[in-house]
Amino acid sequence: MRKMLAAAVFRVLSGVTQKPASRVLVASCNYSNDAMFAIKKCDLYRLEEGPPVTTVLTREDGLRYYRMMQTVRRMELKADQLYKQKFIRGFCHLCDGQEACSVGLEAGINPTDHVITSYRAHGLCYTRGLSVRSILAELTGRRGGCAKGKGGSMHMYVKNFYGGNGIVGAQGPLGAGIALACKYKGNKEVCLALYGDGAANQGQIAEAHNMAALWKLPCVFICENNLYGMGTPVERASASTDYYKRGNFIPGLRVDGMDVLGVREATKFVADYCRSGKGPIVMELQTYRYHGHSMSDPGISYRTREEVQNVRRESDPIMLLKDRMVNSKLATVEELKDIDVEVRKEVEDAAQFAMTDPEPPLEELAHHIYCNTPAFEVRGANQWIKFKSLS
User: In sequence order, what are the beta bridge partners of 387?
Assistant: First the structure.
């Protein structure tokens, strides 16, 4: 079973056979404005039709997706380095390898739509609008962090993004609640509630499915299936690894989560489904993480180095987009290398800030407990120590 699941991730999308980008010689800078690509057909459950099997990628969108995925990749690699240097403490869950998920999801919804996810949140933080500087500074616990140094790796927020959540599966019912607010307001907005394959077995996910179906909430339940829970292959933890069917009475679809275009088109499809008033839908993204479950997990005790290398070689999301763009003359290899250099500098500058920005003072410990509330005192570790809470 595990070999079958891994093979599904390793497959390069059917369609046009492509040469590696490094072998393509571009004679001039006569770029194409757009190109048509085949995308893998989604597996469907309780659906008569699914997302399209072809899509158009414009040069502008392609360059933007490439830059965003490279930024997430470089940011996560820098977070790995900062953790090992002990600038980052505590929990830290990286998402390198899963860049097509965060970038593709954002490309398929509106900025006014809503997203809530698990603790593997850095990529979505960036695509929802947070800067690399504010993310890395939050990881190092500095005042310039997006949560002013108080949230750390798992608790980052920005408008219409309700953070990573440390309680496994808790974002399921929370996402249903956000979708309930969308329906109550009648604003045609949707909520994406993301969880991992490990969290898919939590009871509260099933409870959220039930309530969302009863009330026809505009909620997309998204399982990021990277084939492993916390050191456990999916077939050892799940009686059924068809996570897109887990809604039972809710329609679902399974998507190649290593292809940013496939994720984009599937996200447009499920968002339109929810906006039309049909209720919730489940989407499984088959993806892969290159790091272990967290920084405390080497990631090779339950899978081989060869397996990780095979995914990098055959199905890396950045490589797949790069090959498509170069072979279709949407960009040149040199142009994409220039983007790589710019991204590397941006991340290095952000890391320097994250290492030198001051930590928040102790006096601010009780700040921002509530929003728009008059100041009040909060008792500290003992009754003689008190902190003032400010909004």
Answer: 378
H helix or E strand, kind and range, residue 141? none
Q: 């953790």: which residue's tokens?
A: 83
Distance CA 190, CA 132 (A): 26
Helices (runs of H) and strands (runs of E) counted in the chain: 12, 10
Please state the three-class secondary structure of 264-330 as a single string.
HHHHHHHHHHHHCCCCCEEEEEECCCCCCCCCCCCCCCCCCHHHHHHHHHHHCHHHHHHHHHHHCCC
| Cβ neighbour number for residue 286 with a 10 Å cutoff | 28
Q: Which pLDDT tens digit goes with each residue over 159-217?
A: 999 999 999 999 999 999 999 999 999 999 999 999 999 999 999 999 999 999 999 99
Using DSSP, state whether 370 is helix, strand or coil.
Answer: coil
Name the residue among 335, 337, 328, 332 with its Cα closest to residue 34: 328
Kindly indicate the confidence band of residue 21, based on its pLDDT and cuts at 50, 70 and 90.
very low
What whole-number distance in Å separates Cα of residue 124 and Cα of residue 128? 6
Supply 283's token pair: 């989407």
Q: pTM value?
A: 0.91
The two three-digit tokens of residue 24, written as one number? 């393509």
How many of the other CB atoms lie within 10 Å of CB of 333? 16
How many CA atoms are closer than 13 Å to the CA of 391, on its beta-carbon side? 6
Strand 191-196 and strand 219-225: the pairing is: parallel
Q: Residue written as tokens 């309680």?
A: 167
CA atoms within 13 A of residue 379's CA, in its CB half-sphere: 4
3-state secondary structure 8-46: HHHCCCCCCCCCCHHHCCCCCCCCCCEEEEECCCCEEEC
Alpha carbons 313 and 320: distance in angstroms, whole number: 10
SS3 assignment, position 386: strand
* 145 in Cβ contact with 79 (< 8 Å): no
pLDDT interval class at 371 (50, 70, 90): confident
Q: Phi/psi of residue 191, each to 5°? A: -120, 130
| Distance in angstroms between the alpha carbons of the first and the last residue of the chain | 52
